[in-house]
Amino acid sequence: MNAFKQMAEMGHEQVAFFRNDDVGLRAIIAIHNTTLGPGLGGCRLYPYASEADALRDVLRLSRGMTYKASIAGLDLGGGKAVIIGDPGIKSEALFRAFGQAVQSLGGRYITAEDMNTNVEDMNNIHRETDFVTGGGQATGGSGDPSPVTAWGVFHGIRATLEVVFGSPDVRGRKVAIQGCGNVGRYLAGYLAEAGASLYYTDINGARVQRVIDQHGGVAIEGDEFYGLDVDVLAPCAVGGIINKHTIPLLKAPIICGGANNILNDEVPDGEALAEKGVTYGPDYVVNAGGLINVYSELKGYPRAKAMDDAANIFNTTKSIINKAKSEGITTIEAANHLAEARINAVAKLRSFHLG
């Protein structure tokens, strides 16, 4: 595990490791780029197989947050945190210790909810630091950002449908959702209300049944997801699931979901999708609703503004896909170019002000 080499390759400013054996804390906080503002990104609790896996994940996720904030037009940089541990074993002390870790960075990193963390966890973090968002009303937070994240994904799907089929209308379209956690569950609700036919898979069968009970649809088994003859595959769980092994199985013309780092290897996987004729809605573009919600919370804006801003992901996604087509590049390349252009422009502006 060569941390400095990986940081250099991905352009990170800082990576901090924290441990507290008394409460079982083993955490990594990665700050990718703070040109646009403090690094903001969620705290993920996951039983990584190795420390190397945890480091790779936090580096990729934090870089994605930089690009996500830039594309969304927010004055935020990219950061992320991972806690190595069992999601079934949580404690107030664990998250308070993590809050102390966040506080030690002096505001360079602001944390929020992510996989296997929730409002209660954010409230416990808030006991030790103000550099946290997404807590309950008692801490001045806006609560669960998942409805806004899913709202943005819903509009990203609409944009891909318009580009591929000539209409953004969801009615009658077949959509398969991988992952029925908070984002997947809310996305199912928006799609069902709009008239889509839904298919679900999740490692937790109870989650699938809950979504079916709420919104209708059909349960499918694990890897059946990749070869489904549907209009849209919407990954909303772990990343890296679109790769050299799964791409040959694809039949759906669109991939657009709420998971981070859907492509296992950005360049070859993006090119393979383009060669196969699959339209990919770049994940950090379409799932930016959660970050938009957090930014609205930081600025004191109402939830309604966050929902309106997340709906604009439709226009952003559509423009990126069209840019990719006109320039003969992949959609992830098109998104990266736009994100990097804004960061570079602001960097020059700040350089001018600083003399």
How would you describe this structure to a colleague?
The chain has 355 residues and is an alpha/beta fold. The chain folds into two domains: 7-64 and 76-137, Rossmann fold; 146-288 and 314-339, NAD(P)-binding Rossmann-like Domain (Rossmann fold, 3-Layer(aba) Sandwich), CATH 3.40.50.720. It has 13 helices and eleven strands. It has helices at 3-10, 51-71, 92-104, 119-126, 146-165, 182-193, 205-215, 266-276, 283-286, 289-299, 303-311, 313-327, 331-354, and strands at residues 14-20, 25-33, 39-46, 77-84, 109-112, 174-178, 197-201, 218-219, 232-235, 254-255, 279-280. Strand 1 and strand 2 (25-33) form a beta hairpin. The mean pLDDT is 93.
Cross-sheet strand order for the largest sheet? 8-7-6-9-10-11
Percentage of helical residues?
40-55%
Using DSSP, what is the number of strands? 11
Structural class: alpha/beta
- The ordered string of helix (H) and strand (E) elements is HEEEHEHEHHEHEHEEEHEHHHHH
Shape: globular
Describe the structure in brief.
This protein has 355 residues and is α/β, with parallel strands linked by helices. It has 13 helices and eleven strands.
